User: Fold this.
Amino acid sequence: MNYLADTSALTRILRRQVDPAWYEVVDRGLITVCEPVLAEALQIADTKDYGELEQTIVDTYVLANVPDNI
Assistant:
């Protein structure tokens, strides 16, 4: 089972504000984020850390593409 994380969930995971059991779920590749969530989550990054945070999210989470016609 995969979980589709919204912005608040992803932000809490990135800030280490969730139950530690969720990090095993993350490590197993079971968290999916969509492009709008990625864009929103990057708003928490300082400008100098933006690229690093984006790469971390892309490397860690399954990305779900959102079709243009949605």
In short: The helical segments are 7-14, 21-27, 35-41, 50-60. Residues 50-60 form the longest helix (11 residues). The two ends are 24 Å apart (CA to CA).
